[in-house]
Structure to design on (329 residues):
């Protein structure tokens, strides 16, 4: 497949040629193929090729690099900004997490350390996974973010997922990807908002129904009833405080992400995922401080899965830059 011609746009060429950028060429291994930057980034792409507990569909460890490669085909233009990415901002693709740590807990601690460098409130971290089991490490890395100041009771998590991920353990493992949201809740979050949910146990269903700080919109309800979908978007716009957005790519319908770790039919459309991103970034009293897109598995015959993930990550970046342009960061 041919790489998108980055030089075809005169507008973007101005950015490539500005002093901040080392090169005007398409850079292999950089998200969107953007040039390397000098100085502190506004947005950082962090790849975490972590796969320890995925049920089946091996390959989440290869997902982040596949997503970066597929991002070379994503358009730099979005109507929201009206100009090509990076739109005068600095987007940096950091070296991948190197997988250090001999036990699950050590690896998660190591991931948190790797991320914490970028959670000082200056840079917007876009994390590519890897299995969803990284979520507690992501939450852990936000401890010193100025919007939290160590107080997790301020933090909202918005989760797109097929699975509730609220199990206490799976096969005896409390840090399984199937427990990602439960382990995140252990930090004492303000509120968890879930959408796309269509695979869950009775225990998880009971927890959803009995928890004041978990709001779950089941896929079956939002897909059948457009009013229910509007309620979801309204709930997001009413959020106060910092938000971490976690996108398990399997929250989307299995037809557009067929290669994810555990594809499930009956999920969100691409545009519903986009509307969710739009709603959290435009919530007047909230700030999306970080996001992740995970459970990406490279697909051999077609890049559809990793491309969909790259499109969603790019939407997040675009909306974040829009927030900066509006002086809300
Ligand atoms: Mn998940």
């Amino acid at each position: 497949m041919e790489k998108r011609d980055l030089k075809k746009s005169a507008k973007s060429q101005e950015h490539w040629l500005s002093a901040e950028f080392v090169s005007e060429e398409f850079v292999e291994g950089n998200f969107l193929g953007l040039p390397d930057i000098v100085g502190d980034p506004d947005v950082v792409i962090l790849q975490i090729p972590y796969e320890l507990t995925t049920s089946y569909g091996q390959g989440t460890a290869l997902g982040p690099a596949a997503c970066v490669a597929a991002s070379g085909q994503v358009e730099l233009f979005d109507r929201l900004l009206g100009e090509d990415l990076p739109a005068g901002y600095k987007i940096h693709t950091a070296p991948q997490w190197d997988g250090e740590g001999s036990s699950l807990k050590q690896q998660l601690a190591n991931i948190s350390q790797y991320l914490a460098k970028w959670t000082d409130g200056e840079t917007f971290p876009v994390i590519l996974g890897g299995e969803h089991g990284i979520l507690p490490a992501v939450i852990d890395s936000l401890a010193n973010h100025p919007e939290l100041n160590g107080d997790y009771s301020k933090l909202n998590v918005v989760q797109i997922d097929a699975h509730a991920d609220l199990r206490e353990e799976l096969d005896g493992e409390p840090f399984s990807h199937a427990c990602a949201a439960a382990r995140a809740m252990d930090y004492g979050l303000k509120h968890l908002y879930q959408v796309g949910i269509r695979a869950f146990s009775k225990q998880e269903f009971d927890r959803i129904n009995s928890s004041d700080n978990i709001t779950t919109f089941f896929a079956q309800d939002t897909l059948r009833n457009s009013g229910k979908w509007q309620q979801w978007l309204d709930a997001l716009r009413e959020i106060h405080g910092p938000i971490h957005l976690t996108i398990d790519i399997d929250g989307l319908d299995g037809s557009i992400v067929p290669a994810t770790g555990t594809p499930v039919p009956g999920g969100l459309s691409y545009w519903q995922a986009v509307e969710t991103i739009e709603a959290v970034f435009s919530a007047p009293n909230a700030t999306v401080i970080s996001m992740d897109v995970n459970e990406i598995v490279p697909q051999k015959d077609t890049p559809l899965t990793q491309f969909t993930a790259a499109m969603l990550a790019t939407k997040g970046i675009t909306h974040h830059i829009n927030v900066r342009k509006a002086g809300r960061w």
